Structure formats: C-alpha cells, structure tokens
Amino acid sequence: MLSKKRSLDGLPSHERLLSFTYGGRSFSQDIPRFEIPDHGIPPESAYRLIADELNLDGNPSLNLATFVTTWMEPEAERLIALTLNKNLVDQEEYPQTGVIQERVVNILARLFNAPSGEGGTGTSTVGSSEAIMLALLAHKTRWKRERKARGLPSDRPNIVASSGVHVVWEKFARYFEVDLKLLPMEGDRYTLSPQAVAEAVDERTICVGAILGSTYTGHLDPVEEIDLVLREIREKKGWDIPIHVDGASGGFVLPFLEPDLRWDFRLSQVRSINVSGHKYGLVYPGIGWLLFRDQEDLPEELVFKVNYLGGEESTYTLNFSRGSSMMLAQYYMLLRLGFEGYRRVHATSLSNARWLAKKISENGKFDLIGGADHLPIVSFGVWRDAGFSAVDFSEKLRERGWIVPAYTLPADLSDRTILRVVVKENFSRDMGNLLMSDIDRAISALVGKTPGRKRAHRAPRVC
Predict the structure, then answer these.
(1) Number of independent structural domains in the chain
(2) Which of 11, 27, 137, 388 could form an S-S bond across to 15 if both were Cys, CB 3.0 to 4.6 Å?
(3) pLDDT given at position 20
C-alpha cells in the first residue's frame, strides 16, 4: 500500500500513468505564461489546463454582440476536424479542395446575380476584412492603370463611404495611402446619403463603399439609389466610379429573404461584393468571400503565379497558407440547407429579432434605433430619464452571462451611446423571453428597486 508520505513524483512510471489528471504535478505548479516550459506535460493535463482557463470567457450562446456563427451541426464539425490539416493554397496536393472552392465562388456569383454567361470571379478569404482589402486594391490598381493610359495624374486616390464603415476601410486607407472621405451620419439617418455621395466624389474617386448592414445599427445603405447617382455622373462627367458592397452582414440574408431588393450585380456600378461566410453564412470563423462582377474587374497584375508547391498555381490573397476546413464547411452548409433551408433559418432569426425589438420598444426605457427591418439586428439607446446609462445596463446584463455591447456612434453622432443585439440561428424565442426577464431584472437593480418575489407553492411532502 502506498505510504502517505511518498510523493506522486516518486511513483514508478507505470503507477504514474494511473494517476487522475487533476492529481498530477501539472496542477500543483505554476504554468509558464511568457516562455516555453523546460519540460512538457501529459496531453490530457495540457488540454484540461487550457480548457479550464477558457471557462473565464463568455458563453458563446449568450454572446449577442458577435455577428459570428457560434453553433454548427456535429456533421459539420466532423468535416472541419477531418480537413484541419489541409492547406487551402496547396492545390497541387489537394486539387479537389481547389475545385470545391471554385464551385462556391460560382454559386455565390449566381446568388449575387452576376451577368449571365460569366463564370464566377473571386476567392475565399479569412473573412470580410481581407476581402475588402483585396477589393479596394483591385479598384485602386484599375483606376491608376486607366488614369496613366489617358496621361492623367494617378496620385491622391480617394474612397467615399459612410462614417459607419467597419474599421478595415480605415486600415486600408492608411496602409495603402488612399484618402478616405467618410460622410457623417446625421439626425436619425444612419446610412449613406446618395446626394452627399454625388457631392463628395470626383475624378480621383476609386470607388464608393456601400454597407449592406451597418455594424453599428444594422441599417442598409441605399445601394440602388447610389448606383443611379453614379450612373448619372458617368454620363455627364465620364467618371466611371464603381461601388463596392460590404455585404459582410447582409450578403447571406437578403438573397433569401428579399430576392427582389436590388443591391447586387444587377446594378451596373456594383463591381465587387464581399460577404462573411462566418456570419449569416452559418460557418464558424474564419471564412469570407470576395466576388467581382466579371474578370476585367480583377487586374491581372494582382494575381501571382507560384510553383514552389509542386505545380504552378495562381494566388490572389493577402494571406498564403491557411486551413481549408472553413471553406469546405461553407460548401457543406450550402449543400445541407439549400436555398429553402437558408431562407427558413434566416426567416426564423428575423422573426425573433422583430419580436425582441417590439418587446424592447414597449419596455419604456429604451429608444429603438434599428428594429430588424431587413436583418436580424436590433439596436437601441437608453432614454435620458431612464435612471441608468447604456454602459451600466450592459454591465448589469453581463452579470447574468448576456453579452450586449454598449458603444458610441461614429462622427457627428458620437455623443450617442447605443446597444445592439445580433439575433442568430441559435437564439430561440425561449431565449428571448429569458433575455427580457433579465432585462427587467437589470432595470430594477439599476434604478434601486428590488423586484418582488412570490413564494413558490410547494406540494405536501409525501413520506
């Protein structure tokens, strides 16, 4: 029998293997945080140490801040695990993976109404940020080439967009030396004004950015009206200014719920579109897609040929090596759900979002800003006489596990702090009722009232 004074480390190796994970040495010593440890630890111990630490993170199912997918079917997860070791760029070794990527590009090109007879032109990316970078690079390169061909100056290019754009637009402007003209939101208008676009563009404008679902409020920029303005400018002044549609949020929703809404390649000035597969494309992060209207919108000088993977391959990405699993998971979802499946999933999310918007509006403490008119996104502010701030309210909800972000709006409306709920596939009506109960509880706590509790009636105890 093992003496109580003997340490675990003094056990023979075959007995150490029988020790419980939580009884091992790894759990009684500090783990290095900023340098590689001198000696390794058993795999189960390493797994448990990291998994337990991650319990400090928020619950993805209650994360109403993120647009990113937080649930997939077990079969999808099996496919992801099966393909984690495949490098997407290495199509010499994994040719069928490359074929499937081209299939998805063509599927999305048709979903976005690319001109008939045109094959899909585009690529998968790690997300919409990379896709936007690549699209804007293409528009800048094409603009410079055309200016030089006409003997005109090709310096000081600019982009016109709403102040509500994602930060990646600002990154692109700074990284690639482009002037970003951000047109501010005004009053109760949270979208890009077509008239303001007409006044802001000039011969150095490489493209106009239109948002199909603002990260701030969920509103859609009026893409068709902007297209009309730019077509009139093209006819009068000869400036052929393209539109890039940032469809990160709405690109995987509107084709299924509002197929007659014209925002895509049916509009002549829309030359490129990005969409996030890991948002309403219903795939885990990270996967995005970039689509061009046709081949001529992608300058040849941006496509590189490499042969050091065993055969000559074309590459048009900011990244090189990356996993293929999320791209394949996107194909899985397209096959699994089909058009009708996507429509039903998003219709359910939109219905639940509109129900939630109605409940929040009726609460009496909030000012509804975005009521899920087109996308399952609810944004709202706190009335000044509510007795609490948006930030306090967000923090109080966090105590119950809900993650509802509070943030300020961009230029000209930066004095307003609002909140946002992104309703996704796994947000049920039952979860909505639980959220509303916790909203009422949070309000009562913040205004100094203790909600009354009724004593539950208990049946007689039978012995």
Answers:
(1) 3
(2) 11
(3) 66
**Which pLDDT tens digit goes with each residue over 297-348?**
999 998 877 765 556 667 778 888 889 999 999 999 999 999 999 999 999 9
Domain range for residue 397? 347-446
pLDDT, tens digit, 9 for 90 and up, residues 262-294: 999 999 999 999 999 999 999 999 999 999 999
Strands 417-422 and 406-408: antiparallel
Distance CA 178, CA 209 (A): 13
274 and 410 share one domain = no
3-state secondary structure of 123: strand
Quote the pLDDT of residue 280: 98
**What tokens were used for 280?**
């309403």
Residue ending a domain, choose from 287, 308, 334: 334
**How far is residue 436's CA from residue 155's CA, in Å, rounded to a whole number?**
54
Q: Where are the beta strands (DSSP E) in 31-79?
A: none
pLDDT at 452 exceeding the cut of 50: no
- Burial of 15 by CB count in 10 Å (0-12 exposed, 13-18 middle, 19+ buried)? exposed
Do 314 and 353 have their domain in common? no
129 backbone dihedrals φ, ψ, rounded to 5°: -65, -50
- For residue 249, pLDDT over 80 is answered with yes
Same domain, 240 and 376: no
Same domain, 53 and 92: no
Q: Is the residue at 269 inside a domain?
A: yes
Beta strand residue intervals within 227-355, DSSP E: 243-246, 270-276, 288-292, 304-306, 313-315
In which element (H, E) is residue 267 found? none
CATH of the domain at 433: 3.90.1150.160
Residue 341 within any structural domain of the chain: no
- Give the integer Cα–Cα distance in Å for 11 and 196: 77
Select from 344, 375, 166, 427 the least CA-distant residue to 254: 375
Please, what is the Cα angle at 11 between 10 and 13, to 5 degrees?
A: 120
Q: Taking the alpha carbons of 21, 25, 30, 33 in that order, is the dihedral positive or negative?
A: negative
* Judgement on whether residues 327 and 388 belong to the same structural domain of the protein: no
Using CA atoms, how far apart are residues 24 and 19, in angstroms rounded to an integer? 7
Is 241 inside any structural domain?
yes
C-alpha separations of 357 from 363, 375, 387, 393, 444 in Å: 10, 12, 21, 17, 20
